[in-house]
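Working notes for the structural subgroup meeting. M.R. asked for a predicted model of this chain before we commit to crystallization trials. I am recording the input and output together here so anyone reviewing the notebook later can reproduce the run.

Input as submitted:
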Amino acid sequence: MTSQMPERILIDGKPHLLHALPLYRLLASRRVRISAPDEWTTNCHRQYVGTWDVIDGKLCLVALSTYGDRERPLSDAMRSWFLRLVPATRFPVSAEWFSGHLRIPTGPMLLWGFHGWSSWFTRERVITCRRGRVVRDREVDTLAMLEWALRRCEGLKQRIDPEDTRGELLTWITDDDYEHLRGDWWPPDWEGQRIPTSL
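Returned structure, recorded in C-alpha cell form:
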C-alpha cells in the first residue's frame, strides 16, 4: 500500500488535510466511479480529491477534481454528471448523504505511516456528522493517547528498538503545524474566497 492523497477541508478559514472519504458511500451506493482521464497513480486509488467546508453547521463539498498523474478540474461533462448525481445545480453541494466521522490532523506529525492514512499527529479534530449536519466537534490529544498506550505496554520500547538508550521512542518529523500545506495545494479550478494568502 501507498500513503494516500487526503481530501481537503477548510476549518475556521484555514486549510487542513481530511482523513475521511465523505463521497465514498454515495458513489458506492450508486455503483459509479469518478475516473481520472489520464494515467492512474498509486497514491490516489479513488482518482479524485474533494475540497470540503462546514457552512452553517453543514458539511459541504465546495470543489471536486480528478487525480491521475496530476490534479485536474472536472470536465464540463463530468461536472454536469456529478451535479445530476448529487443532485444539485452548482457547488457548494450539501453532503446530506454523509454520516460518519471526519478526522482532521491539527498538530505536527509524530509518526509517518506508508499506507492509507496511518500517520500519527499530535492532535486531531474529529467532527461527527449525521446526514451532513455536524452533531459533534471535538479535539483529540492523540499524543497523550499514544503515550498512554506505550505506558500500558511494558517492554514495548525494547521490542521496537533495543538500541534506544535515550528512551525516546517518538520521533518528531516537523514542528510546523502547516508545513505539509505549503505550496500549490488547492484544486486547479478553485474559485473560493477564503483561500489564505499565507500559512
